């Protein structure tokens, strides 16, 4: 197909040099990616020779490598590159978690040390917030706190009764006998009747 026909049908003209350049560009991206991963791996290995702080740094490099390689490629790359160093996948995951935690704490610290806004609108908002907090605190202090009624749970109740030795022995025998469940019901029934008769609840 000559150039005239190519333009006539609206097809792009791809010269040999353009095709070569396109393939080279794709390779250069892959090479740049591979070089970046290799650099990060070398940095991670250097950190592994040192202590905890270095392990956090190694974890940061592992996190970056994992994000560059993408889903499904990290474990195979890790085994190929770091297994000879005696580092297990689980250890690397721990380092990565340590790095994420350290980064989150650092971010929190940076936020807490940030300067307060100084523009008039922000200062007005701060004053309104402080006023609202003060009003809420005053209202909470003035309003009576409703008392919760204590709720008793079902269970064993030690009734302070004066019993003679014989009465205590008879009660102990009743509790040990197979008739205790019916005896217990009878005692509770008598207590309920007594409470109703004498003004208890």
What features would you describe in this structure?
This protein has helices at 3-8, 16-48, 52-69, 74-82, 89-112, 120-142, 165-176, 180-198. The chain is mainly α. It folds into two domains: 3-112, no CATH class; 165-198. α2 (16-48) packs antiparallel against α3 and α3 (52-69) crosses α5. The longest helix is centred in the first third of the chain and has 33 residues, at 16-48.
Give keywords.
201 residues; mainly alpha; 72% helix
Chain-wise SSE layout:
Layout: H1 3-8, H2 16-48, H3 52-69, H4 74-82, H5 89-112, H6 120-142, H7 165-176, H8 180-198
In short:
This protein is 72% helix and 0% strand.
Task: Find the count of extended strands (DSSP E, 2+ residues).
Answer: 0
Structural class: mainly alpha
Instruction: Report the mean per-residue pLDDT as an integer.
Output: 77
Q: Can you tell me the number of structural domains?
A: 2
Strand content: under 5%
Please give the count of helices.
8
Helical fraction: over 70%
Q: Mind describing the biggest β-sheet?
A: none
The best one-word shape is: elongated
